[in-house]
Amino acid sequence: MQYRKTPQLMISVVLCTCNRAELFVKALSTLCEQLLETRFYEIIIVDNNSTDSTRSIADKFCRDYPNIRYVLETHQGLSYARNRGWKEARGLYVAYVDDDCSMPAQWLKIAIEIINKIASAVFGGPYFAFYNSSKPYWWKDSYGNYEQARVSRPLRELEYLRGGNIFFRRKVLEDMKGFEAKLGMSGQTLGYGEETHLQRRIRSAMPNEIIYYDTRLYNYHLVRSEKMRLGWNLYSHFVNGRDSNEIFQKPFHKIGRLNKLDLLCQAILVFFKLQVNYLNGVVRRDRELYPYLNNYLYENTSKYFVTFGELYDEFIREQKR
After folding, report:
1. Which of 48, 145, 154, 216 would bridge 18 by S-S if both were Cys, CB 3.0 to 4.6 A apart?
2. Helix segments in 179-259, DSSP class H
């Protein structure tokens, strides 16, 4: 493969982590086993206040691999860590992966091909589930997968890349001043949407730029045991609804502004629909489509928890007005 000559590194891979040393070391190992020559990429470990063995593991990798650097970000939160990553980066593009991901050996070589051919502001690809524990009887692999499209193409206006497999041109991150710090994970507290929020801002400020999805640029994402519990997933949908309401504010969001009484009436109506939907799942669900009740609740009933999250965010907003 021929690479375009550049006075700088092509890719800075940012790996943010917090107290998950046993997972982080595996993700880091796969980044060190890439087929791309190390002179074309660097790895930046951003430690977000870990108290386990993360630092000692990182130090060993830094000694063994000259293209790896370690930084400590003391502001708690994934968005803070990601912002520290692009500020430390020297590459033309900045890649973000989660600390429970596994990258196939050709991952960065394919990324270079996309950069040379498309040169989009943002690009990424799918991820597929893998496990380190047994799956519940009802769990489908598709629940842990992310596939935006069947073919490689630019994404449309309301389509977005996920943060576990995403690349940004560093100059774009600089111009946009990175991620919104109040969004995203913070320690063990669930939060979502900082990468979606950033992509929306990029589209608004740079309408001629492309956000590109490539089916070849896949990696693997661990589905941890707690993520295969129904209760965790329903709460996750609630958080998604809450944070989506923050991201897709009026005039984009369907709810718009409601007063407290409106919100209460909406919540009661949604709760009633939830009960009806649950009973329908128990009594009348399609057993071939939803072999277990948990499948029905995950795939069908969870939308009501998203709406509860949206209403909750609207209520908090109304409290602050």
Report:
1. 48
2. 194-205, 230-247
Rounded (10°) CA dihedral 231, 236, 238, 244: -170
Determine the Cα–Cα distance for residues 54 and 64; give it in Å rounded to an integer: 16
Cβ-based burial of 121 (10 A; exposed 0-12, middle 13-18, buried ≥19) = buried
The residue from 191, 213, 228 where one domain ends is: 228
Cβ neighbours of residue 198 closer than 8 Å, sequence gap 6 or more: 168, 176, 178, 179, 180
Q: Mean pLDDT, the chain, as a whole number?
A: 92
Read off the DSSP letter of residue 135. Answer: P
Of 125-139, 145-159, 219-233, 251-265, minimum mean pLDDT range: 251-265
Distance CA 149, CA 294 (A): 26
CA distance 203 to 209: 7
Q: In whole angstroms, give the CA distance from residue 226 to residue 40.
A: 37
Query: What is the distance between the alpha carbons of residues 170 and 173, in angstroms, rounded to a whole number?
Result: 5
Domain that holds residue 121: 11-228
Closest CA to 45 of 13, 21, 92, 22: 13
CB 71 within 8 Å of CB 27: no
Q: Phi first, then psi: give them for residue 186, nearest 5 degrees.
A: -145, 100
Task: Judge whether 5 lies within some domain.
Answer: no
Measured CA to CA, the distance from residue 93 to residue 174 in angstroms comes to 11
Give the least confident one: 3-17, 23-37, 62-76, 209-223.
3-17
Pull the structure tokens for residue 85.
């990553």
3-state secondary structure 273-288: HHHHHHHHHHHCCCCC
Domain end, chosen from 228, 255, 279, is at 228
